[in-house]
Amino acid sequence: PTPTPPKSSKKPSWKHPTDADGVQKWQWFIEVEPSPELVKYLRDDNTFSLIPSASPKPLDNAPSWFFIANNTTTLQSPQGSLRLIFNDKTHMLYATDSGSGFRPGAPEPLKAAPAQTPLKRLPK
């Protein structure tokens, strides 16, 4: 069966940075009502190998709706930037991550040379 897509209660905003913007830092926040399958995948299966955190570091620049109450289970990356926060009372999932700038992507693989057609002899 197809899982029910999660409901998002906030409208995301996105700015497409250009090279001229000189992005030095990026950060995102999301609040979602996850399906049981998503909770199992992220929390129970711990897909991203995150570490439970009893006292996560305070969040910089979090929007006002990104409220972390008591009764939560927090998983975070060893560096502490990726965090998944499960509110056990409201059953909402809060997630955030941040990083420094953008890195160039991997180069595209070289294209294979076209096959050469075999040479034919001219008739005598």
In terms of DSSP E residues, the strand content is: 15-25%
Specify the overall morphology: elongated
Biggest sheet, in brief?
Answer: 6 strands, antiparallel
List SSEs in N-to-C order: EEHEEEE
Radius of gyration: 23 Å
Main structural class: mainly beta
What labels would you give this structure?
six-stranded antiparallel β-sheet, mainly beta, 124 residues
Could you characterize what this model shows?
By secondary structure, the protein is mainly beta. Helices cover 7% and strands 23% of the residues. It contains one helix and six strands, in the order ββαββββ. The chain has one helix spanning 36-44; strands at residues 7-8, 26-33, 51-52, 72-76, 83-87, 93-99. A six-stranded antiparallel sheet has the order 1-2-6-5-4-3, with helices on one face. β5 and β6 (93-99) form a beta hairpin. The model has no long low-confidence stretch (mean pLDDT 79).
Q: How is the topology of this model organized?
A:
Blueprint: E1 7-8, E2 26-33, H1 36-44, E3 51-52, E4 72-76, E5 83-87, E6 93-99
Task: Give a quick rundown of the structure.
By secondary structure, the chain is mainly β. The chain contains one helix and six strands; from the N terminus they run E-E-H-E-E-E-E.
